[in-house]
Q: What sequence folds into this?
């Protein structure tokens, strides 16, 4: 088998979506695309997506990467294996790391060549600061890849294509707060519980020790 049963695509940069979609067509039988709005969903279908999953409900003060939890849940619900394609942007790499953790998947960044053999991805990318090309075969059921620009040609949109759009209805929750939340800063300033006389005594003791040390040094 030289293709995955399905591939999952997401791009935080709309201009990178066409090339990721072209790569998805070459690597899998079914293409699923996560999008942030209706316009991106329509574009994804024209570029070849069979299923579009609309991410919504994120508060304005949260990052796109915080969708990683629900993205991983959706991916697991629709297959025991699969390929995830992301752009090699800073945000794409952060999202790749979060998805890799949640899917227990190997993550390969800056892929310049991707192929599939026996249902496993083989990836080539630059190593040693660009002095050589490294090749790795990903053995985990899920594989998460960030793709270098130019790895695939851009797919051409076709308005006659059709696909199915999924939104946050039923059991699928498309926004969920991360499990970890930073502590809020206390509104009141910290107040020392030690009495004033204790602090004064410590200061006097320190001054006496310093004076004794100076006197002993002067007598030498």
A:
């Amino acid at each position: 088998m030289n293709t995955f049963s399905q591939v999952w695509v997401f791009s935080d940069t709309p201009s990178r979506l066409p090339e990721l979609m072209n790569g998805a067509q070459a690597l899998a039988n079914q293409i699923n695309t996560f999008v942030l709005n209706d316009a991106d969903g329509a574009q994804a279908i024209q570029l070849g997506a069979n299923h579009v999953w609309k991410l919504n409900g994120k508060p304005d003060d949260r990052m796109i990467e915080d969708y990683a939890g629900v993205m991983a849940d959706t991916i697991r619900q629709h297959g025991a294996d699969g390929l995830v394609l992301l752009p090699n942007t800073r945000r794409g790499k952060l999202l790749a790391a979060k998805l890799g953790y949640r899917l227990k998947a190997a993550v390969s960044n800056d892929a310049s060549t991707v192929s599939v053999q026996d249902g496993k991805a083989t990836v080539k990318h630059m190593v040693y600061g660009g002095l050589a090309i490294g090749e790795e075969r990903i053995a985990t059921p899920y594989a998460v890849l960030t793709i270098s620009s130019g790895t695939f040609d851009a797919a051409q949109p076709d308005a006659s294509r059709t696909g199915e759009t999924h939104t946050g209805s039923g059991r699928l929750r498309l926004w969920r707060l991360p499990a970890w939340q930073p502590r809020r800063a206390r509104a009141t300033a910290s107040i020392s519980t030690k009495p004033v006389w204790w602090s004064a005594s410590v200061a006097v003791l320190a001054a006496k020790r310093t004076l004794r040390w100076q006197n002993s040094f002067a007598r030498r």
